[in-house]
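cron nightly-structures :: item 1 of 1
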Amino acid sequence: MSAEPQTTREVMLEKLETLKKLGINPYPSGIELTGEPITTKEALKRIGHEVLVPGRIWSIRRHGAVKFFDIVDETGKIQVLFQEKVLGEDYETLQFFDIGDFLAVKGKVVKTQAGEVTIDTSEFQILGKAVRPLPNDWFGLKDMEDRYRKRYLDLLFNPDVRARFNTRTMLIREVRRYLDNLGYFEVETPTLQPLYGGANAKPFKTHLNALDAEMYLRIADELYLKRLLVGGYSKVYEICKDFRNEGMDLTHNPEFTMIEYYSAYSDYQKVMDVTEGLFKHLAKAIFGGTTMQVGEHSIDVGRSWPRVKMTDLLKDKLKLDVGKETQKSLVEYCRKNDIEILGEETKGQLIFTIFDKKISGTLIQPTWVIDYPKDVSPLSKDKSGEDGFVERFEGYIGGKEICDGWSELTDPKEQRSRFVSDTKIARKDKEEAQHVDEDFLEAMEYGMPPTGGIGIGIDRLTMFFTNTWSIKEVILYPTMRPKGGDNA
């Protein structure tokens, strides 16, 4: 980083006090030098012109009566020259500046004898004094936790990390653009809810003192968005934070970002059409094409995605015809094939478990898996002519589940029955069940149009489009175990 050794925090604090004694404000409200500030990238193009550039000191080099600083901003880096013969007494204050300080420099852009574009400084102003030295060698690669806990250093030292989060921002922007152009309305629904629902997940609980009521952080926004369709909206979406009090691994974080969108007079086939179009739009907007790398595989999202029944996949890949199997025989199949189960699952739960453990990871090219067991899909409409199955789909790419949606159940009586059934079926944690939501059922009783809907994790979307298969790498501040007094 620097040709000059870094100083210690104690010395930096001493320099801070010295600047104050000299009457220099080390933390001004803004730039006091005259002129319009520009970026380092812009300054590099202004040879022969006077510029005003703010940035952070990245390196310091001394050569007799001159000093060279490199200053950086989010657009790049530029060299800055300070000459004692030009700056006079002000030159002496530079000895109190350190790597990491923020400053503004004003001067003419020139080329040095070595050919490097440089700002020949005529005026300068400190904008923010650092009192903790930046590490000479970023230690994050040695300690992954420090990279996540001190993301500001991770962003500062690793351009690839910043680029990844820039891609995330672009994805969210383009998702909105795509849905807005299709006539969807972006809305907001409650984060604090009196009853959680919309997914099978364990909630975070809290207490609302003003109402002396137990509340939950939302695990999904589905049930509130569908109320809006009852209220007359035809197309809605929401990008929001969801919270699930469950395990953490490479693809799961307790706090995560989801987009859900719903359209009236649609079914799961139409939702797949819209979503397939979304992925193609995002690929073209981010990469200029539809082919990308996912893990070790080259993926083309531009082709037509096959729509394959879950039961057909089980038959083709495992030679397992679940139509001829019983709950008991599927339990035996799981035990023989080292698939962890509780042993009390329904037949539908077992079908899904076998698929999830044995097949999902093999679906590399974009694939829609359709028609799921009813027992694992309490909000989905029945598949006509196929008892025990519903119109649900999941999108798989690179062996990972990217999105989940279905034709929405619109029969309030059937929905009540599904809620009751879901509270009774076997699962490790009963809190993951869908509960009977009387307020939602009442809304449905006023009439709900045929509806298709989907949920897509923004974090997983970013993982996919950046080929980064750890969720902590795509969340700026992932959930971490508290460290001492640190609640990060």
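cron nightly-structures :: done
Residues 9-128 form a domain with the OB fold (Dihydrolipoamide Acetyltransferase, E2P) fold (CATH 2.40.50.140).
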